[in-house]
Amino acid sequence: MEFINKLYDLLWGPWMIYGIMLVGVVFTILTKGVQVRFLKDMFGQIFHGKKSDAGVSSFQAMSMALSGRIGTGNIAGTATAIAFGGPGAIFWMWVIAFFGAATAYVESTLAQIYKEEKNGVYRGGPAFYIHKFTGKRWLGMIFAIAALVAMSFLQPTVQANAIADAMYNAFELPHWVSGLAVCLILGLIIIGGVKRIAAAASFIVPFMAIAYILVAVIIIILNIDQVPSIFSLIFRSAFGADEMFGGILGAAIAWGVKRGIYANEAGQGTGPHPAAAAEVSHPVKQGLVQAASVYLDTFLVCTATAFMILFTGMYNVQEGEGTGAFIVQNLPGVEAGTAFTQYAVDAAFPIAGFGTIFVAFALFFFAFTTTMAYYYIAETNMAYIFDGKKLKLGIRFVQIVILFATYFGAVRPSESAWTLGDIGLGIMVWVNVIGLLFLVKPALIALKDYERQKKAGKNPVFYPEELGIKNADFWMKKK
Fold this sequence. Notes:
By secondary structure, the chain is mostly helical. It is about 75% helix and about 5% strand. It is built from 21 helices and 4 strands. It has a two-stranded antiparallel sheet. It has a two-stranded antiparallel sheet with strand order 3-4. The longest helix has about 40 residues, at about 415-455.
């Protein structure tokens, strides 16, 4: 266990946290602020792409990516950031989302450039673009194996346990019942492959996000007089200018960046998988859509959680993690996390237990769709490793493993599940981020090409050989 903890600290230390932020800054400079210059296109392209026999629409691909980005971290993670970093942590979550959008553009555009069609389905992601750009399959295999283990076996246990706990707290539903129910629904969806996953995501994700944000809007309206003071508190705390929270400026930055990265997933290598599945005429179109998904995740869902908590005052802020000393203690004896949001909703609505029930359902949808995204990522990396009959057997194996992990996580969570899952994810992040620094050129060339065609009044189409981009086999065959 000591070795596991040391490995976790090595993978997720300051170099990882601030390194990803620095990469976002670098990509923002190299793309000349793609997340600002193409803001209209980022959201405009969401509804333009149409699905095909092999691919999904831009909206479906974004919904699949959001199903992974919007998870328990948007509720528990945001609350934890406030608990240990103060209200100012929210500002730094916004900052990392802004720069992360540039990273999401780069990795998702690369996923489109180097995607493949396998067994009638578009596949792509870090394993594919690292391999095709470098010509070294073993580099792609490192990512693929880490993703396969983390996404099919380790991470789903945590999401399933979050669902089971929420249902037990709200309805006293036994964990085994929740586990069976989630496995049944998940099995019915994943057995249908990428098309069924995309269809489910495009229905569930907008529904759950809108409902969650609507409750936050109601809470803001009920406390509309507090709007100036809450925004002032966030900004003052973010720069150490607030008397109460000035002493934890470092914690505000650290926790804001840490939880922001965890929530928006930019640079983690998860978003490129669904991005590659989209049917578009030019890779940049989906790169921009995925950049928009980072904004939607943080500026809407994470911010909704933060506002619910801050506007109702239902939070504690510790002087330091594990110190036991508090700067603010509005909820004595309540641990940092989901409970902050439950108390916040309860405080706003005079219906007994409404907060517990609402957050339980929110957690169910958030965690369920995240597990669905985990399966898709695992399946895609299995498709990178195997072909033909072996791939079919591999996909069936992944389906069995993720259903087992989901049920196991619901009924008997492992204390080391988070740590082990994060180690797998950490390896994915390191391989992906280091790879992106060397692979960014094709994404920049594609962006210039897209911009040139847009200025000429054309609907951009992609011809890689004319741009000097090699090994983009799918697009060369398409021509």
